[in-house]
Amino acid sequence: MLVCDTREAWTQFLQYIKAKCSATAFGNWFVPIRVLNATNEELVLEVPNIFVQEYLITNYKKDLCAFLPVKVTGEPSIVFVIASTQKRSIPPVRATVQIEEPSPHTLEIKLNPNYRFENFIEGPANQFVKSVAMGVASRPGQTYNPLFVHGGVGLGKTHILHSIGHYLREHQKKVRIQYTTTEAFINKLVGHLREKSIKEMKTLYRDEIDVLLVDDIQFLQDRPNFQEEFACMFEALSLRGCQVVITSDKPPSHLKLSERTIGKMEGGLVVNMGIPDLETRVAILQYKAEQKGFNIPHKVAFYIAENIHNNIRQLEGAVNKLCAYCKLLNMPITEELVSKTLREMFNLVPRERVSVEQILKQVASVFKVRVSDIKGIVRQKDIALARQVAMYLSKELVDESLTMLGVSFGKTHSTILHAHKNIQEKMSQDENLRRYISMVRRNLMD
Ligand code: ADP
Ligand code: MG
Description:
By secondary structure, the protein is α/β, with parallel strands linked by helices. The chain has four domains: 6-83, DnaA, N-terminal domain (GMP Synthetase, Chain A, domain 3, 2-Layer Sandwich); 104-273, Rossmann fold (3-Layer(aba) Sandwich), CATH 3.40.50.300; 278-346, Helicase, Ruva Protein, domain 3 (Orthogonal Bundle), CATH 1.10.8.60; 356-445, Chromosomal Replication Initiator Protein Dnaa, Chain: A. The chain has helices spanning 6-20, 23-30, 50-67, 127-138, 157-171, 182-194, 198-207, 224-239, 259-266, 278-291, 298-307, 312-329, 335-341, 343-346, 356-367, 371-375, 381-397, 402-409, 413-429, 431-445, and strands spanning 34-38, 43-47, 78-82, 147-151, 177-181, 211-215, 243-248, 269-273. The strands form two sheets. Strands 5-6-7-4-8 form a five-stranded parallel β-sheet, sandwiched between helices. The longest helix has 18 residues, at 50-67. The termini are far apart. The structure holds adenosine-5'-diphosphate (ADP) and magnesium ion. Adenosine-5'-diphosphate binds next to helix 5 and helix 12.
């Protein structure tokens, strides 16, 4: 029979459970729960986090239903309230990061030895991110906090995050750093939950670190049960003045997380890791090859960087593949070899979707000439250049034979080849031309 007051029913439930489970489990899971309100119909419980709520419902639903009123849905009539962070015992606010003796178990961070500031090649698209990250690494908690770095895949976000870790480890030995991917954070939480040692983990993340580096926060979007826990930890760290650096594939406002968490992320500095321009890509490529003991000729480097535009990881993959190939065949790196070896990668450019007509239209708009002029025979300098660019891009992007391309332009296949070679040569010397061509390419991809 149901007891009228749900508070009384709860007390009886606790007594029943206490006799059933171990003292540790009872201490971990039930003691922290507080009754906020109780009526005849409903019990309002404050739980420290979502896990306690889930634990209770998953393991004791039947028992709860036996003691408490039951909703039409078959659930026990309990309203759960997650305790707000303010109520929890948070150490006093610190304006800056305090230097304390490191506690050994917080420092087992795994950083990629190659991801260092010294190995990060900068260009206009990423130098701001690098300098901000260096600022954070040299004065954690005092400049931009939190620092939120977002950008596309393979553009160096993880590289920058690890660089901060390395720098701190070497220059500020006493600062306690924790690096984690969002996946690892979730897995760790699940593990601690299973071992019922969640308190330990909380203490570690909230009280025993000065700098938290979190990679790929976008993965938190798919795990609603863990968002609350992350938010609490994030807020507790912020209150203590700890430096937090977060990376993501999209800006905070595009993440499906609570407004409060997004607000907190936006409260520091949000920076975008852009796609490096052609010259930076060439520099990265040559640097990576040099590290492997290879020297890629400038022209060949341009050829590769022109074809792989928006992912440095792919660029690295190309270098690795090429170096392996050259070593194996004991051959010098030439444009021909590059094109043969890397054909698959270059095919990532959506060839079949681009037509000569589309190219003509985009070239005409970027070069400020008319499509009819490009198709015509006028030899005026700017028109002739636009025409050759259109031929160059057609050979690069359209999946047609040279003869067919020739027909599209009313020329022979050798004219297309000549134009292609000519533009390639000009591009290696003319920065403006490279920019214009990149612009056409970008417009074609949109
Ligand atoms: P993301 O985390 O943005 O997906 P990563 O940091 O994993 O990208 O970078 C992918 C690869 O490209 C890494 O091997 C990294 O070292 C390299 N990389 C990216 N940007 C640069 C750069 N500016 N200079 C040198 N290497 C870079
Ligand atoms: Mg990454």
